[in-house]
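Before relying on records like the one below, remember that each one covers exactly one chain. Contacts with other chains, cofactors or solvent are not represented anywhere in the record.
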Amino acid sequence: MKTWIFAGLATKSDVTLYISKILANTGFKVLLVDATEYERYRYSIDAIYLPQWITEFEGFDVACGFTNIKQISDYLSGTGEEISHYDFIICDVEKTGFLTKEEWMSASARVWVTTYSRQDLERGKTWIYKLQESLQVEELPSFYRLWTQIIDTKIDQYAWDYYSDSPIQFHGTPVSIYWDEIDTALQLENEHIKRLHVKPLSRQYKKSLALLLELLTGWTSVESRKALSLTERKRA
């Protein structure tokens, strides 16, 4: 079982949903955990009016309303399932106390997600210090860096250097997801029809998803493209 943590206050549900679907269609058992402040994933799948729930969506499971991983494990045990049965647990984390220090440190991958928005950058830096205080460490474990909703701009270097004076370290090759009107329209359509179509995504977005998968899984470019093509053809 591998745990991937997508951290930060920038909206990243589109990325985690697409990644979860690609992994699921490749044959892996995936649990996507909503640890966002306002439970964003309730708006992407059929509404479930329960304080805590786990439901299947597009071939993978989504957990919402929980306050920590242990609650999820206990919930699954009550249904006769074990959390260890999942190949991947993907956590979209905005709540700094959702994961324990051990869970942060032992994760297979940690991904810091932000946009170029000044609000996201500044709120993100504050969040980093809160996480450091919560974990009681001098320096946070290393993260991959994912830029999302990117457009061509002249502030690239300013944004890239923004966290240089904070207690977060980055490794690996940064991945940037450039958005255009096709990707924006598809995200809105997916939310309203409660589906997750991948094929209409822009070529650039698909390329970025493939790069992210290669970074996190160790797949080759051929393997990542094959997984994307399978997802485009296969209906959940």
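The two ends are 22 Å apart (CA to CA).
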